[in-house]
Write a structure and sequence with these properties.
This protein is an alpha+beta fold. The protein is 47% helix and 24% strand.
Length: 795
Amino acid sequence: MSRPKTLSRYFPLAVFLCLASAVLGVSWFLSHNQTAAIRNEANLIGQQTAGQLEDHIANHLSIIEHIRNLWMKGQINNHDAYVETVESLQLQFSGFQAINWVNPEGVIQWVAPVAGNGPALGANLAEHPIAGELMERTLRSNRDMATRPVMLLQGGKGFTTFYPLIRDGRLEGYLNGVFRVESLMTEALAQVARSDYRITIRDGEHALYSRGTASGDDAFTTTHSVKLLNRTWDLSLTPGPDSIAAQSMNADKIVLVLGLLLSIGLAYLLRLVTLRQEALWAAEESYSGLFENATEGIYRSLPDGTCIGCNPAMVKLNGFTRESELLTAVSSESNSWYVDAGRREEFFRLINRDGRIDNFISEVHRLSDGQRIWVSENAYVIRDEDGEVLGYQGTVMDITERRRANEILRREREFVVAMLDTAEALICVIDMDGQVVRFNKACERLSGYSLSEVIGRPVYDFVIPDQDHDSLKNMLSSLRMGVYPNTHLNYWTCRKGGQRLIEWSNTALRDESGKVAYCVAIGIDVTERKQAEEDLQLAKEEAESANRAKSEFLANMSHELRTPLNAVIGFAEILENQMFGEMGDSRYGDYARDIRTSATHLLGIINNILDLSKVEAGRLELIDAPTDVADVLSSCLNIVKAMTHANEVSFRIEADADLPYLMTDERMLRQILLNILSNALKFTPAGGRITVTLKNEPEKDAYRIIIADTGIGMTAENITKALTPFGQVESSLSRKYDGTGLGLPLSRSLIELHGGRLKIESEPEKGTEVTLHFPGNRIVQRKSLREDTSQANSA
């Protein structure tokens, strides 16, 4: 909506422009001649100033050129001569900061004068981004060059020059002239230009020097060039007020001032007339911009509710593209905006009572298609100066998506609460001070406290006993340090008395800043489980104690059982061999042999039981000695081969060359081998084979004895049975093959007593392989044994 360009608005401006134009014309005619005179004088002074400055700097540069000539002639060949020459010349020509000698590598070696230039001594100019690049260009072109304005090593702004010292085609360094801008320019321009002139010198884009204030008239500024070796400076000269006044007459200003004052006064009077109109239109334009560009729908209506205007957002909210479409739809009596017709009366009741209404939420029909949406309305009453209602103005916001999101959030919250409250586990949420935030139904049932009673209360006050305060605080500290999830145990004191042991799994929730804010703990009541574990542990200890008592009893019965059996065996042998004469009937001899055989068998069983009991009771001790396993094996095979049907089974021994000794209890090793070999022979039918392999495996740090047969074999389940004391593979086997079921369990216990292990691999009808694995620390090399024996004999 644009503001009309009325005559009343522009008339004061037109009057002012006409009067001002006439005044300016007269004033310009008077001042034109004065301006030409001022500009000519400024130009003349500028030329003189530029020439003076160029001559002044050229004189100083000639000093450096003179020093270079003396260098080339060999008259300057040491530090003292250099300093003396430079300082004597500087007495005649001030304005230098320093004249340095820079070596070919770019390092300042000599400075003169020494006073005030100490910071520059030893500086590497080759590393300076400006000086280093300029030295390279100077050397390539064999030309004297100057830098743009730089910050000097001695402090302050200035510029430097470089003169290459090349003699007989060899670079001997550079003469480096250092000029401080302020002192050089002050001296050069002291006798040039009036003091109120503003002088500005620039080197390209870089400001070099400025004198005077900015009060001069830039219209009279003149610019001149000043040559310095490879650079060109721009010198700008602007006359000051005093210089301009000296050349000016004030008639043009008097005419201009009086004429403009008259023009301004008249224009001001006219402008006052239009100020109110301007203010009204400015306010209207501001409101129009807000109205058209607002993201919320805005409407105006008459006291009876008839809509008379709305913004584009309101049109879009109702599904239309033009305001006229919406106004037509609103005027139709068939269109009722509110889904609940009673909301319209409620709206007018509240706004007429309070003068305004805020956040009036209703479900409405979108007027274009009848789709239901939710909106929030804010409106106020427009009244005239007498308080009469002129209409209403309000805003409308579509909150359908927000309500849908809130509804989803509400349902999810109810779902989570339902899950928490139906869970059997204890779920408790506390803050980092231990105050309750959430307490599910399981917690309420166990503790006897309701959520309303405990929310905001520290758990230390009602459920955590004193002895568990520190453990809970330590757990919260771990969460703060990022150690989660974690677990801990503590007791809960119930309202009705008693304590329950709870096992907690804890994790942390962080706030928007990433700081740990809450602990979420899921707990299980483990009181009964812990009691059961303690009862089970007690029963286990009692069983172990009873087993130890049994083993100790059997071990103590060794003498009482063996002594009578030995007597029986001895007397049976006497009778069998008829040592005191013939017994008459030959059947007595058979009976005596049966008695001896049975007693010997029983003694073997008793010995196995006693040995196994000693192992379990921890009373069986090793008598270690270096043992030749091959010799022990050979004697065991001789015994086994004397057994029944041994001649029907073939035996084979496979052994590595030069086998080492084993540090073992030889009696136990013999018993192990006899048990396993007799089992192999017992379960290997005629025509079968038993193979014994001896392997020293230093790379595996082990010594292995492998006994393999081609007998009836066993299943994995039967292997477990066979390793159980008195275990028989199956009843049918027990009837076919004699034995007590103690050989393998005893052999395993004896080898484990040596720090080794027994391993059985078997498959029915294919055979069995038993591996005795001795650890590497029991291997004794033959050479080592011979050395120990030799040392013992020498001793």
